[in-house]
Write a structure and sequence with these properties.
The complex is a heterodimer of chains A (289) and B (296).
Chain A: H1 9-35, H2 54-57, H3 69-102, H4 108-120, H5 123-145, H6 156-180, H7 184-192, H8 197-226, H9 229-234, H10 241-250, H11 256-288
Chain B: H1 2-46, E1 48-52, E2 55-58, H2 61-68, H3 70-104, H4 107-118, H5 125-136, H6 141-148, H7 162-186, H8 190-198, H9 203-231, H10 235-240, H11 248-258, H12 262-287, H13 291-295
Antiparallel strand pairs in B: 1-2
Helix pairs in contact in B: 1-12, 3-7, 3-9, 5-7, 7-9, 8-9, 9-12, 11-12
The chains are: A mainly alpha (289), B mainly alpha (296).
């Protein structure tokens, strides 16, 4: 079973057909979601009742996505959370990367293994463990000292901490992988030319890390934006878009969620291709230069 | 000279120590406050037994209740079985595709197909599940298509059963199986496969004796990740399995958020964590790998 090994025509054709069917299966649900955003019906389901842009634009009777303040607000909430998670993950991830790649200390390999734990703990468990821990601390402070700390109660700050708790592992791995490839003599050269330790890191090492920081940033943002399991356990009254869409789909919804999904897919696709092109441009420049 | 050099060397070492502490601080805060202490607290909570308002004793009641009530343990077993089935199906569907991408095509087309296989997973699980709802619901595409073909004369509801959950879980797990499989099959030397044929093996023998043994680390890695993610999934069973999906994560959610019985919920959470970790641990033992080596 290789290109170099002769196979019967039927086998080759059958194999190609299977792979084609696989890709049909991969994309069918997404295409279906997109198509039914334009269905002139109250429900996101067949039969097809004609083409309409109501689920995007309408503001009277049917509420299109551009006039659905609840859904738009929830997107804003998700973006706020994702930005916070991304910034936190990049800062802590970078420090972790330096710790793992540069520092020598006892228990380092144990620390590294512990950093990987969040990836093998189910998201629901991460959520409930942080939920009850924060509540216990909040209750303790309240009972003993009469201090009320709001951010330890279910709400956006806890959502940020919950998502950060495992996304930072991925940021750490991405940044550390790049830092490992860094040629230390460059930093030494900068020091020889009179730069301070931090100065050399800022002017030489950090620019080298930029592609990894961008990559880790995009992954962190996406993972936060799309997170459901951990968020569900920690969310308060202000719901991010995944939670809101979940409730709406579960309880029955109009095709407005299809319209929103289509827009999100377009944004993702644009961002994804942009990143791919930027990466390719960067590599080409590096190759020629 | 040596006397003069000492203090500055001492200062340098102190500086290094300080920067080490500064670098360690965020990692320790993160792991301590968000991972370790919460899980210790979760364990402690699961061992608390409520006697009355604000009155607790330590005991295993939350766990014994789990084993005494058949609805609880049967749900965990059911969840584990469906997760195993989903993992096996994902592997069966993904393997030929991964082999095709890794070995049957080359160059630009190969890269394109690989990227294409990853693309749907940039979209949130919620949107993908919405697609399956539209396809499977009573007024959905399959039901409509079958009526149009004249195979059935009544609309058929395909949501709200185990098969629907399985379809959603397999779909959502595909990426995590395809990527490790393509990676591991890519590293298989073509000449080994050719040698297998030259030595008189047929396609099946080559697959069994050469390809699958070589792919084993990727197969195990993919299976561990997929099993872990399906076991911990809460979205897909809730949306495709309907109100009585009887999924274990849903019971944890019910205990914590709906019934506010945190002690019992904590015990359930710990049981899920144990099952999940056990599978990861066994998988690592089988392949003789460590967590660190599989992740980097």
């Amino acid at each position: 079973m290789l290109t170099t090994i002769p196979q019967s025509r039927t086998f080759k054709l059958g194999y190609a057909l299977y792979v084609a069917l696989f890709f049909l299966y991969l994309f069918a649900p997404l295409v279906v979601v997109g198509i039914f955003a334009f269905n002139d019906s109250q429900f996101p389901s067949p039969p097809w009742r004609g083409f309409t842009l109501d689920w995007f634009l309408s503001s009277t009777g049917r509420i299109g996505i551009f006039h659905d303040d609840g859904l738009i607000g929830s997107i804003g909430t998700s973006i706020k959370v994702a930005v916070a998670v991304t910034i936190l993950s990049l800062i802590v991830g970078t420090m972790n990367a330096f710790l793992l790649e540069r520092a020598q200390f006892r228990g380092k390999s144990l620390l590294f293994t512990m950093m990987l734990w969040p990836l093998v703990i189910p998201g629901v468990i991460l959520g409930v463990s942080i939920l009850q821990f924060a509540s216990t601390v909040a209750n303790g402070l309240e009972d003993r000292f009469g201090i009320f700390i709001d951010f330890l109660r279910p709400g956006l700050p806890l959502v940020v901490f919950g998502q950060f708790s495992f996304i930072v592992t991925i940021a750490t791995l991405v940044i550390a992988a790049r830092l490992r490839k860094f040629d230390m003599t460059l930093e030494e050269a900068a020091r020889d030319l009179g730069a301070s330790r931090l100065g050399a890191i800022r002017t030489v090492t950090m620019p080298f890390l930029t592609p990894a920081l961008i990559g880790a940033g995009v992954i962190s943002f996406l993972m936060s934006f799309e997170n459901f399991n951990t968020t569900l356990m920690l969310v308060g009254s202000e719901a991010p878009v995944t939670i809101r869409m979940f409730t709406q789909i579960r309880d029955g919804t109009t095709p407005v969620v299809n319209a929103l999904s289509l827009l999100l897919m377009l944004v993702m696709a644009t961002a994804g291709f942009g990143l791919l092109l930027a990466n390719r441009g960067g590599e080409a420049r590096r190759d020629s230069g | 000279m040596s006397v003069a050099a000492l203090p500055s060397e001492g200062a340098g070492r102190a500086g290094l120590r300080l920067s080490l502490i500064l670098l360690l601080a965020p990692a320790l805060l993160w792991l301590g406050l968000l991972i370790i202490l919460p899980h210790i607290q979760l364990l402690a909570l699961s061992l608390k037994v409520k006697l009355g308002p604000r009155l607790y004793e330590t005991g295993l009641t939350n766990y014994t209740e789990f084993f005494a009530e058949s609805i609880y343990w049967s749900t965990l077993i059911r969840t584990a079985f469906i997760s195993i089935a989903a993992t096996a199906l994902t592997l069966l569907i993904a393997f030929p595709v991964a082999y095709y991408i890794a070995k049957m095509i080359r160059g630009r087309r190969k890269n394109l197909l690989f990227v294409l296989a990853l693309l749907p997973f940039w979209v949130s699980e919620l949107i993908r599940t919405l697609g399956w709802i539209i396809i499977l619901r009573e007024t959905g595409l399959i039901s409509l298509g079958l009526q149009w073909l004249g195979l059935i004369d009544q609309p058929v509801e395909l949501l709200g059963n185990d098969a629907a959950i399985l379809v959603g879980l397999v779909y959502t797990s595909m990426l995590f199986m395809v990527v490790p499989l393509v990676t591991v099959l890519d590293s298989l030397d073509d000449t080994l496969v050719e040698a297998g044929y030259d030595l008189g093996g047929n396609g099946f023998a080559v697959l069994r004796e050469i390809i699958i043994p070589h792919a084993m680390p990727g197969i195990v890695a993919g299976c561990i990740i997929v099993f872990m993610l399906t076991l911990g999934n809460i979205l897909t069973p809730a949306l495709l399995g309907g109100k009585n999906s009887l999924w274990f994560t849903d019971q944890i959610f019910q205990k914590f958020i709906v019934r506010f019985n945190w002690e019992q919920g904590a015990a359930f959470g710990f049981l899920l964590l144990i099952v999940s970790s056990l599978v990861v641990w066994i998988g690592l033992k089988i392949t003789r790998q460590s967590l660190a080596s599989t992740m980097t």
